[in-house]
Specification:
Layout: E1 6-14, H1 18-31, E2 38-45, H2 51-58, H3 60-65, E3 68-73, H4 81-91, E4 94-99, H5 110-120, E5 124-127, E6 140-142, H6 143-148, H7 162-172, E7 176-179, H8 193-197, H9 201-205, E8 206-215, E9 218-225, E10 229-237, H10 243-246, E11 261-263, E12 268-274, E13 278-283, E14 286-291, E15 296-299, E16 302-306, H11 310-334, E17 347-351, E18 358-361
Parallel strand pairs: 1-2, 1-4, 2-3, 5-7
Antiparallel strand pairs: 3-17, 4-6, 8-9, 8-16, 9-10, 10-11, 10-12, 12-13, 13-14, 15-16, 17-18
């Protein structure tokens, strides 16, 4: 067991979200300043926006007092939500572990409240009351229970459903979800979805996006990646589907599938290349030649439109990421897969700006 075990650790992961931490980090520490019981673990997930310089210049007093511990990894090319959280949780030194998004304000006394709740209740974990998505990621769980469920599911790569999956597995271990209700604990920095997904794989690696209309509830999405691979998805908004007409009564719906956007059918994969005047896409042995500059293309007997509006593109990334994660989580449950079978939160980090000593998380 580690020395000087604290009561609670707030685990923050950050990749190029300095503009949020500048507003929240010191405020959260000041509002929960219990140095003997509380620590803030900040994992800089290979940020390039000056986060390390800002911490060194403005937060050294908290590092010196031991309430803030700053770790940095240089290994990640894009933000991996589940992996980064697992790293931060493993680096923490406390009985209770709490994920804290960079844009969240804890509120005055949140740490004391959670410490008290865990002292009088067994077999619980704490979340928000599901009223605000911006605080949905704040999950407080005992250190032991985090390791029992093998952390966040690293097969879920992008934004969306990783929290649901983590909480479902805690519940499956007999833990009771409890929600905090004090409005003071629900404040956050208002921002759009661009901040949520701009550092994730799909957003950073998509070269072109196309969309096609299938019916009022269903769209086709085609992504051409920077590495010249291609993927095609069919997204269905089941919350809008009339199940009596669109689905047979015998069709099995998994968990909350009837209330969310899901992937229908198989993911179609292919390749593409760029010539002088055409974009050539290969799918299932068939090559489609598309004239450059067209906003509308005829592809595989479907009319696709090139998505060039950034706001629409971001919304599609959010929906697609969540649907991909949901599909993978359902698959794992059906197949009774072991979560993170090779380990979780692995990597190399450096503590409090000391680059002479690497910390290996095996």
């Amino acid at each position: 067991m580690k020395d000087n075990l604290k009561k609670i650790a707030f685990c923050i992961t950050c990749m190029n979200r300095l503009h949020h931490l500048q507003q929240t980090l010191e405020k959260n520490i000041q509002d929960n300043l219990l140095p003997d019981e509380v620590e803030f673990v900040l994992l800089d997930y290979n940020s390039t926006d000056g986060l390390d310089e800002w911490i060194l210049k403005n937060m050294q007093q908290y590092i010196d007092s031991g309430i803030l511990i700053y770790f940095k990894t240089f290994e990640s090319e894009h933000y991996q939500r589940s992996h980064s959280r697992n790293m931060a949780f493993r680096l923490a030194n406390a009985d209770i572990l709490c994920n804290l998004d960079a844009d969240n304000f804890l509120g005055k006394g949140f740490a004391a409240f959670i410490i008290h709740e865990f002292s009088i209740h067994d077999n619980i974990f704490y979340t928000n009351n599901y009223s605000l998505n911006d605080t949905y990621g704040r999950v407080c769980v005992s250190n032991q229970d985090f390791f029992t469920v093998r952390g966040y599911n690293e097969a879920l790569k992008g934004y969306g459903y990783e929290d649901n999956d983590f909480q479902n597995r805690l519940i499956s271990q007999g833990l009771k979800p409890v929600s905090f209700h004090n409005p003071e604990f629900y404040r956050f920095v208002l921002h759009d979805d661009t901040d949520r997904i701009s550092e994730e794989y799909l957003a950073k690696n998509t070269n072109m996006m196309y969309i096609t209309y299938i019916n009022p509830y269903t769209s086709g999405i085609m992504l051409l990646y920077n590495n010249f691979t291609m993927e095609r998805y069919t997204l269905a908004d089941n919350s809008q589907v009339n199940f009596f007409t669109e689905f047979s009564k015998s069709e099995e719906l998994f968990f909350d599938e009837g209330r969310r956007v899901v992937i229908k059918g198989n993911i179609i994969k292919g390749t593409w290349n760029d010539n002088d005047n055409t974009v050539n896409i290969q799918e299932n042995g068939v090559e489609y030649k598309i004239e450059k500059g067209l906003s509308m293309i005829d592809f595989s007997d479907l009319i696709f439109y090139k998505v060039e509006d950034n706001e629409l593109m971001v919304k599609i990334f959010v929906l697609l990421n969540s649907a991909i994660n949901y599909q993978e989580a359902c698959k794992q449950i059906k197949e009774k897969s072991i979560i993170n079978p090779e380990g979780f939160g692995m990597g190399i980090v450096y503590k409090n700006f000391d680059l002479s000593k690497e910390i290996i998380l095996p």
